[in-house]
Design brief:
By secondary structure, the chain is an alpha/beta fold. The protein contains seven helices and six strands; from the N terminus they run αβαβαβααβααββ. The protein has helices at residues 5-12, 42-57, 71-84, 95-98, 100-109, 126-134, 141-149; strands at residues 17-23, 64-68, 89-93, 117-122, 156-161, 174-179.
């Protein structure tokens, strides 16, 4: 593996709440029904499998997943659920498809305090922009620089905080890791 996932898990475990923001896996080109119905490609299936398996092995299985209603995001989530088992509660939200950063912040504001690990599966540029805004400037500078480049498909940004998700504000998340599918090999 490119990144030591046990160290990532240990670092994330120092925080009561962990947020994982993920860009959907690689998708095929637009079909007759348009962008929203794009399916993940064979490469995307492999990416979602790698990431799901790595997160499960590292004991970073979410309690709840909020996923865009776009086909490629749903398929990414479904593929990862094969490794997560029955634990995560999954909700689909059409607002995450085109709602921008505010849609992610709105979803976070409605998460119950008993949810300790939340995953949001969405799209570029929203996932990168939101991650940049949530990242505490005292986080690891190398990780902050990665966020500025934008997220490649199936990448996951992991944040930690001791505040419940409904209390997070801009710059509240300590950046724990930015994982790509290659990091999960």
């Amino acid at each position: 593996m490119g990144v030591n996932l046990s160290k990532v898990s240990k670092k994330a475990g120092k925080y009561q709440y962990q947020l994982m923001i993920m860009r959907h896996a690689n998708a095929k080109g637009a079909g007759p029904e348009g962008d929203i119905s794009r399916e993940i490609s064979d490469k995307g299936l492999k990416q979602a499998k790698k990431v799901g398996k790595a997160l499960a092995v590292a004991s970073l299985i979410p309690d709840q997943i909020i996923c865009s209603g776009a086909t490629r995001a749903r398929q990414t989530t479904e593929r990862m659920l094969k490794y997560f088992g029955d634990k995560p509660k999954v909700e689909m939200r059409q607002s995450l498809y085109a709602g921008g950063m505010q849609s992610i912040l709105d979803e976070m504001s409605h998460v119950r305090a008993k949810t300790r690990r939340l995953m949001i599966v969405g799209h570029e540029p929203t996932v990168s922009v939101t991650s940049q805004w949530l990242a505490n400037p005292e986080s690891d500078p190398a990780l902050l620089n990665i966020l500025n480049l934008g997220l490649s498909t199936a990448s996951v940004v992991i944040f930690g905080s001791d505040r419940p998700f409904d209390q997070w504000q801009v710059r509240d998340g300590i950046l724990v890791a930015v994982l790509t599918p290659k990091d999960c090999e």
